[in-house]
Specification:
The protein has helices at about 15-20, 45-60, 70-80, 85-115, 120-125, 130-149. The protein has about 150 residues and is an all-alpha fold. Helix 2 crosses helix 4. The protein is flat, with a radius of gyration of 30 Å. The model has no long low-confidence stretch (mean pLDDT about 75).
Length: about 150
């Protein structure tokens, strides 16, 4: 039978080929992705990204019809390269300040991890048990009122 095969008709293959390629086509087992801690502090932006945030606002004002992100990035990159060290200094100072804050946050975060406490556990402990019970009672009362009507 010549022509295209139907879906019901199995494809003919050589058994010897199957045996040889059986191990060759296997993919290695997937490694499980590490789950990122949402409480971990985010890294601070570099001096260029501090500059980029300011430049992006100005660029949008000057070129309101431009919607391409790549154009903004290229323009910012060329402008950053053309700036002198003195012009880059204020952006570098802001980045250094954010870096110091980040370092303090990371130390505090690591200290919490060492103690075995997460921020979520601390938030739960802040809310007293009486407040939790009050919330449950309010839910119960609202449910009773609906049944009476």
């Amino acid at each position: 039978m010549k022509g295209p095969r139907s879906k019901a008709e199995p494809k003919k293959t050589d058994n010897k080929l199957k045996q040889k390629s059986a191990g060759a086509g296997k993919k290695p087992a997937k490694k499980e992705k590490l789950v990122k801690d949402p409480n971990k502090p985010k890294r601070p932006p570099s001096a260029f990204f501090v500059f980029m945030a300011e430049f992006r606002e100005q660029f949008k004002k000057d070129h309101p019809n431009n919607k391409a992100v790549s154009v903004v990035g290229k323009a910012a990159g060329s402008k950053w390269k053309s700036l002198s060290a003195a012009d880059k200094a204020p952006y570098q100072a802001k980045a250094d300040k954010m870096k110091k804050e980040y370092d303090g946050d990371v130390q505090a975060y690591n200290k919490r991890l060492a103690e075995g406490k997460n921020a979520s556990e601390e938030e739960e402990s802040d809310k007293s048990k009486s407040e939790i019970n009050d919330d449950e009672e309010e839910d119960d009362e609202s449910g009773e009122e609906e049944e009476e009507d």
